[in-house]
Amino acid sequence: MEYRYLLLEKKDGILLVRIHRPEELNALNADLLSELDCAMAEASAEEEVRAVILTGEGKSFVAGADIACMSTMDPVEAKAFGSFGAEVFRRIEIMEKPVIAAVNGYALGGGCELAMACDIRIASTKAKIGQPETSLGITPGFNGTLRLPRLVGLGRAKEIILAGETLDAAEAYRIGLFNKVVEPEELLDTAWELASKIVSRAPLAVRYAKEAMNNSMESGFEAAMAMEANLFALCFATQDQKEGMAAFLEKRKAGFSGK
Ligand code: CO8
Question: What is the CA(26)–ligand 1 centre distance, in A?
Fold first, then answer.
């Protein structure tokens, strides 16, 4: 598919998706959200893609949902737009392949929510992240009220969302919202290095581990225990489990097939 707002690059099992809507600091309108949804669905379907890195072009990762578009919405339109964005982000969160956000600049409102839907967040020292919605007279609408408390704890999430705060990269790292902060010129290399490391592991084990962790945050302890046990057992039906363990015992590097 031809994309208007996304630039895609694929190499060594990794898909780099750059959000490119420079005049609006990569603000999310419905078309951009649809393109993102489509690119992620393609990445899910393509066997050669094993990890995705999501970043923004210019000084912004994503400066939020498009305020100009939202300004004239009635409640029905707002609900449809909010639900659509939330569904797109949910599909990213639960896709079978790992997604790393390389947060290069502003990640505000919907931008923070998009970064949180990714599995891991690597940020540049120039990144700024937060949920300024209450200063616009709205609540977060792409599930920031669900994911921020899970990532940083309820007290800190309430402080950020109720006060409409924006954090610098160091503070976001301190509270666990960013996994790592690096100089801007090192951002993509760092994200790429991490993605490469993940890609070198057994793909099904990576997929099941992600599924188990997502599930553990969303279900009761006993149900999560059962899910982990099942996914763990499922690994023993794969060639990669046999190869990984044989390689260890034979003191050689494993060659995984993804089967
Ligand atoms: N939407 C639309 N346009 C935007 C947005 C945005 N979110 N952010 C920036 N822009 C535009 C500006 O209007 C400006 O356009 P123009 O050149 O035509 O005036 C251009 O981008 C450049 O922006 P600035 O001149 O403001 O650049 P600065 O470097 O001075 O400031 C900031 C950068 C701090 C990022 C500033 O642009 C800003 O505060 N932006 C808004 C950030 C924000 O509030 N984001 C949250 C939006 S609400 C949201 O995301 C809710 C998600 C859930 C929605 C559910 C729907 C129902």
Answer: 9
